[in-house]
Amino acid sequence: MFAFILKTIVFFAAVFSEKDLIVYNEESEKFEKTKEKIDSKIKKTTDGQIQTQGDIDPFKLENTWKYLKNYIENSLNDNEKLEKVSIKDAFYKDFLYLKNKDKKMKVFSFEMLNQWVENRQKQISKVYFSKTKELTPTNINKNIKQKLILEAQRARSFAYVPYSEFHVGSAILTKDGKIYSGCNFENAAYGNTICAERCAIAKAISSENRGISFQKNSNIVAIAIVIRGGGGSPCGNCRQVLNEFNPDMLVIMSDIDGENVIEKPLTDLLPMGFGPANLDKAQVK
Ligand code: THU
User: Would the pTM of this model clear 0.85, i.e. be above it?
Assistant: First the structure.
């Protein structure tokens, strides 16, 4: 009981100690702090969503967009500008997409903008689970899947996609709960583009894993792929590369807001895939 009260106090302290939010006021043509004004009408639910009560709309898409433009133009040095301007349009399109999809999303705009522009989202590099068993493609719970999708979302904001403007993020989960994420990065010679999935694989292998034991022990149990619109089915090349490490891994395809999720074992996406076992069979003693 005491723990519950303590948790409740900590939760409310966290909610109310939040920074002031600044939005563009169209009437005064100024950026204004709005916390005091909207506090009483804004409620944060336990899962972190913001809900408004009544008809206020201080986070209008247009206001957020103006704020972003002003922030980029007036508050950044040249190097920072280069970075932020390149993600500006991506953010705007994501935002428009989410707004059209779910009207509630517009009140979330300032936080979303911060996540994109400042990379405020925290990296998730490990998930915790019962020590008595290891993760498998079929025993991963919803909470772990959500974390994997979140990390893929975060990685997506790093995508280098000046040619396609198609941002992809992915995150690989290993048996022992480690997460390696990746994004696509393109090349002026288009064919040299690396997909998000292969980027994540490269990170997983090169970080701390001896490739052979990693492959033999089917250490990769799942991969999440995040694209706008959902259904980010891995390309043929990536299916083959994933197949090398575990044909049974779970492929989780999600929209940018963690919804419209499709899950399939890799064997469904690459039936009769060619792998190390085929080479083994051909050995002559
Ligand atoms: N792409 C990925 O990163 N993963 C996929 O599964 C499909 C395609 C990238 C490659 C390229 O940068 C852009 O998406 C458009 O094809």
Answer: no
